[in-house]
Write a structure and sequence with these properties.
two-stranded antiparallel ribbon; 154 residues; alpha/beta
Amino acid sequence: MSLLKAKEHLQKYGLENRIMEFDVSSATVSEAARVINCKEEEIAKTLSFIVDDKPILIVVSGDCKIDNSKFKTEFQTKAKMIPFDNVEELIGHAVGGVCPFGINENVDVYLDNSLKRFEIVYPACGSSNSAVKLTLDELKKISNYKKWIDVCKQ
């Protein structure tokens, strides 16, 4: 169902032909990079948090981690990831397939500056065995992101 929601979203932009589905898992950065045959940092991992009792997504480069002090500066609160069992309900995709498209309406999306190093990135596409090849400009356009932020460390 989540893959279908992501496909429908990508169809609005004529990008559904970029979706890749695999016979093996692409749920982790290393699995995705291996099956796509790209560098781990080119994977656009989508992390889910709760800020002010509201779910948000932050899309970051695959080689980065959240820097707690930068997160607190940006959002005026401590970084609190959504518990595994609540991600699908709050975001619209299950862990391993979380992406910034085909998501629930009340979810804000942010893009981290760590992605600006790349022309092409590979976010998941709603399932734990899918991805989509996008230019950074396409990701910006279809994710309906609020703004660029700097909340990561490599």
